[in-house]
Specification:
This protein is mostly helical and 132 residues long. It has six helices and no strands.
Length: 132
């Protein structure tokens, strides 16, 4: 049996977001003390197609924060980071101003090239500048 991955139409209208309780459980795993870049991206890879906008932004933020602390660099060729950038781009309209800011900060801090994400966030943020 093939494992369903985040790469499959992540964030598209055809995917149903998981219930709130499941979002909370994933959020705790993402932000847990024992979380590593690999475990966070693994969780995203497995369940990201059902993540809320908040959990998508939190994954990006935590990966950048943990990665920076350890002085490692997430590789630009890591398909999970490309998938995360694509998922965030598709779901950007569901992000609040804090989630937009955290996502842009995270990709910039991790030095992951995501020009389409930055363009999409800029377009979404412009009409909401008063919220920042």
């Amino acid at each position: 049996m093939r494992r369903r991955t985040a790469r499959r139409e992540l964030g598209s209208a055809s995917q149903e977001e998981a219930p709130r309780q499941q979002q909370i459980q994933w959020g705790k795993q993402i932000t847990g003390r024992d979380a590593t870049v690999d475990t966070i991206l693994g969780l995203f890879e497995t369940h990201g197609h059902r993540f809320s906008a908040r959990n998508l932004a939190t994954v990006a933020h935590r990966v950048a924060k943990i990665d920076g602390r350890r002085r490692n660099r997430v590789r630009n060729d890591d398909h999970r980071m490309r998938d995360l950038a694509n998922a965030c781009s598709r779901r950007v309209e569901g992000f609040n101003s804090q989630e937009l800011a955290n996502t842009v900060w995270a990709f910039a801090t991790a030095d992951v090239k995501a020009p389409e994400l930055f363009d999409t966030v800029a377009s979404a943020a412009l009409p909401r500048l008063g919220e920042f």
